[in-house]
């Protein structure tokens, strides 16, 4: 059975995958770019204001971002 998920959830998953890959490769200095203005907004301000579906993934992103020396959130669109 396929689950229907929103764009914000998919964008957040993509950001999380990138963070996990950078961490696995030992890359500490990163710029995180995403096409979703909403995802970047919630990561920069307050993830509690994001969609409830994306909240667990946004929290994982914030937890993994603590690993990095320098991280900036950037919206590429």
TrEMBL record:
Cleavable signal peptide: none
Domain RNase H type-1: 8-66
Domain of life: Eukaryota
Molecular function terms from GO: nucleic acid binding; RNA-DNA hybrid ribonuclease activity
Pfam families: RVT_3
Name assigned to this protein: RNase H type-1 domain-containing protein
Source species of the chain: Malus domestica
Lineage: Eukaryota, Viridiplantae, Streptophyta, Embryophyta, Tracheophyta
